[in-house]
Amino acid sequence: MNEMPNIEQATDMTETKISANKVQVYYGDTHAIKDVDIEIQPRSVTAFIGPSGCGKSTFLRTINRMNDTIDICRVEGSIRIDGEDIYDPKVDPVQLRAKVGMVFQKPNPFPKSIYDNIAYGPRIHGLARNKAELDDIVSSSLQKAGLWEEVKNRLDEPGTGMSGGQQQRLCIARAIAVSPEVILMDEPCSALDPIATAKVEELIDELRENFTIVIVTHSMQQAARVSQRTAFFHLGILVEEGSTQDIFTNPKDKRTQDYITGRFG
Ligand SMILES: Nc1ncnc2c1ncn2[C@@H]1O[C@H](COP(=O)(O)OP(=O)(O)OP(=O)(O)O)[C@@H](O)[C@H]1O
């Protein structure tokens, strides 16, 4: 008897987690993102690359409405996550940012203990009914961020006293603690040395099993190492998006080719 195809797996391959349609972003009169359409797959890493000022960070911030915090910034078009328009007035940006976490260029732990850095979000969002549940969230988030063994005996010490690489993994653990579905990373390794960078890259590779990850990076080597899909931006336009292998070995657009071969940027 023929076996039924694995439908779940088959759908998964074409599934879309984030879908952007005709997205424009303006800072006052500056048109920073022009007509961007992209579909981002779940449980994968998508890298945004392109020369400085091309709009990578701006577009990344539209995915959890961090641009709302910039007065002169205006977003048009639609961004859907699991089909839901995240710019719908009914959407609470605080809830959205729990679902779509963010890790920044410079590690920014709170001036609190390692434990409280992780426990802060779950407390605010009421994710633990008691101390034992909160303890579980803290330990499992630190484990998922590959930090547990290094910090399990010093949870009461300040997060700011850790090394830069540990602080960045703490920030990743903090994002994970509120059970996000998407994690946005804006040049997460730019302040780290090569060893700490390698650890964060390893972590990103592990996290993609459970999360949809979008990373802005200046390093094409990093994009090639950590991502399955790559999107190349230039002057606010999404020039091309595709499998990382295709973008780096067989780009369709001359601008992409010029960038990846170091002709500009
Ligand atoms: N807060 C802001 N106010 C005004 N203009 C801004 C703001 N943030 C970004 N811009 C402008 O929007 C454009 C895109 O900037 P953005 O930081 O998104 O690019 P980027 O590709 O991430 O650059 P980089 O790689 O240098 O970080 C630039 O022209 C920039 O000057």
Q: List low-pLDDT spans.
A: 1-5, 7-12
Number of helices: 11
Q: Name the structural class.
A: alpha/beta
Instruction: Calculate Rg over CA atoms.
Output: 19 Å
H and E order: HEEEHEEHEHHHHEHEHEEHH
Report how far the terminal alpha carbons are from each other: 57 Å
Task: State the CATH superfamily name of the domain at 16-108 and 182-260.
Answer: P-loop containing nucleotide triphosphate hydrolases
Distinct small molecules:
adenosine-5'-triphosphate
Task: Look at the structure and give the CATH class of the domain at 16-108 and 182-260.
Answer: Alpha Beta
Range of strand content? 15-25%
CATH topology description of the domain at 16-108 and 182-260: Rossmann fold
Strand line-up in the sheet with most strands: 6-7-8-3-9-10
What's the main sheet like?
Answer: 6 strands, mixed
Helix content: 25-40%
EC number: 3.6.3.27
Pfam families: ABC_tran (PF00005)
Family: Belongs to the ABC transporter superfamily.
Organism: Roseibium album
What's the helix and strand layout?
Elements (H helix, E strand, L loop, with lengths): L6 H8 L3 E10 L2 E11 L4 E5 L6 H7 L10 E9 L2 E2 L7 H7 E4 L10 H11 L6 H14 L3 H4 L12 H13 L5 E5 L7 H14 L4 E5 L3 H7 L2 E6 L2 E7 H6 L4 H7 L5
Parallel strand pairs: 3-8, 3-9, 6-7, 7-8
Antiparallel strand pairs: 1-2, 1-4, 4-5, 9-10
Features:
265 residues, 6-stranded mixed beta sheet, 10 strands, single chain, binds adenosine-5'-triphosphate, Rossmann fold, 4-stranded antiparallel beta sheet, disordered N terminus, 11 helices, alpha/beta
